[in-house]
Amino acid sequence: MVDSSTVIGHQKILDRLSTAISNGQNSHAYLISGPDSVGKKCVALYIASALNCETASQTPCGTCSQCNRISRRVHSDCETISIDVDGYLHGDGNKRTVITIDQVRKIIRECYLKPYEGKYRVYIIEQSHRMSEEASNALLKTLEEPPEQVVIILISSVPEKILPTLVSRTQLISLKKVNRLELQKGLIQNFQLEDTAAEELSKTCDGKPGIAVKMLNDEDYKKWRSDALDEVEFLAEADSYARFIYGGSLSKRYLKDRDALIAILTLWQEWWRDVLISSYGINNSIINQSRVDKISYFADRYGSTKCAQTLRILNSTMVKLQKNFNPSLTFEQLMLSMPSLT
């Protein structure tokens, strides 16, 4: 169900939203920002449920027909818009990297129709910073004169990349990482985990409930994460030649799926941060607790200076990729400039 118990953390924000919506003071547009996997989509669905909930005493109740259908993603008035990665929506089979003008035009056509089964039509636009300029301008015109009974929710981890005039017409909701103890409590309540398991998982996912849920439910994600950590451990021990060859494969993977490779680099940053922390003897703050022995090994071999240097190099690589530097040269430089084992 989509009630406050299924959104792990962010309770003060949920309480304010629930009170405002119950009093008829909801906004016609929201922008939910925050790190990846911190719960932005869950909060968006919470808003959708609160707007359409049938129970006046507790909004959203999480048990009525409206809340139930929204939680199961089958509500006809609650639609999620995302990048058409396989060309299915456009019917041409071409992969896209932006939310297109056609996708936004569909929203505009539909939003002037009355809700079919609920009180409000709710459109949730994921990765809204990926809207094309045309799409952003088209949506802006709609937000300037918003239709009644329509709420548009933008979700983004980089809101600074969204058209400023579009941002100015939304109510901003900024989510932070969830406190570890609060996350641990949520995992126990929602997934009936034992205290020890919940404690370890809450450390591993670094304040991001979405990662915790994936690690509990998604075997593919578990394998992806494990493989990415195996890679960074391999590179930590590899010599310069092996790293150079590996850099070529990273470049090819980046050109094939940019977002997937960025996610891997982000996980590598997290792992090296663990190694740095361990080099100071603070193992209880390590995120990847299941690999604490290997992390301690590399911490002893590299030392704090080289760990910090590696983190700076990884951060610089991420910045270069965001600025569209040549990926082949960028990964080559990454591999050759990373410190080696003593």
The CA-CA distance between the termini, in Å, is: 53 Å
Helix content: 55-70%
The portion of residues forming beta strands comes to 5-15%
CATH topology tier name of the largest domain: Rossmann fold
Alpha-beta classification: alpha/beta
> Which regions have little confidence, pLDDT < 50, spanning 5+ residues?
1-5
What's this model, at a glance?
The chain is α/β, with parallel strands linked by helices and 342 residues long. 56% of the residues lie in helices and 7% in strands.
Describe the protein's architecture and organization.
Helices cover 56% and strands 7% of the residues. The protein is of the alpha/beta class and 342 residues long. It has two domains: 11-174, 3-Layer(aba) Sandwich (Rossmann fold); 218-337, no CATH class. The chain has a five-stranded parallel beta sheet, with helices on both faces. β3, α5 and β4 form a beta-alpha-beta unit. It is globular, with a radius of gyration of 22 Å. Residues 1-5 have low confidence and may be disordered.
Provide the fold topology:
Blueprint: H1 11-22, E1 29-33, H2 40-52, H3 65-71, E2 78-81, H4 101-111, E3 121-125, H5 133-144, E4 150-156, H6 164-167, E5 171-174, H7 180-191, H8 195-204, H9 209-217, H10 219-237, H11 240-256, H12 258-279, H13 292-322, H14 327-337
